Amino acid sequence: MLLNSSDAAYAPQPAWPERVAASTGDVATSPVAKLGLRIRGGLPPRARRRVREFIEAHLDETISIQALAAIVGLSMYHFARAFKQSEGMTPHDYLVLCRVRRAQNLLAATDLPLSEIALASGFADQSHCARRFREHFGVTPSSYRWSMR
């Protein structure tokens, strides 16, 4: 049976534990790499590693696309295209995913207040963290923390 676009909008979503379990994989593994496809173009492996290491080391700071592009010696426009081709997502989406995963780890491992976890993860404030966390996992950070106890 074929689905039209309106049917896809009402397709049942997996329950939040399944979404959380499915999203706790390695950030370094891109969706393209999971498919086992060989990519032509994009960032070289060493450049990808340097960018990932920089993001992990400076996650609680403001990270600009200019800074990431300077790490690999490309213009910010060329870097954005090459990064998306390599990782399967934009640099901003990757950065938000890393921040959400750091918040997830801190929620599970510490008893820090949610506002401190948001700042330690690099979000501007707690509401921004909660909004992005809910987009990725389908639950609020406090609900996630409560379910992990």
The proportion of strand residues reads: under 5%
Whole-number tally of structural domains = 2
Q: How does CATH name the architecture of the largest domain?
A: Orthogonal Bundle
Distance between the termini: 43 Å
Instruction: Please state the average pLDDT score.
Output: 84
Q: Output the structural class.
A: mainly alpha
3D shape: elongated
Helix content: 55-70%
CATH topology of the largest domain: Arc Repressor Mutant, subunit A
The strand count comes to 0
Helix tally equals: 10
Unreliable runs, pLDDT <50, ≥5 residues? none
Give me the CATH superfamily of the largest domain.
Homeodomain-like
CATH class of the largest domain: Mainly Alpha
Largest sheet: none
- What's the order of the H and E elements? HHHHHHHHHH
What is the CA-atom radius of gyration, in angstroms?
A: 17 Å
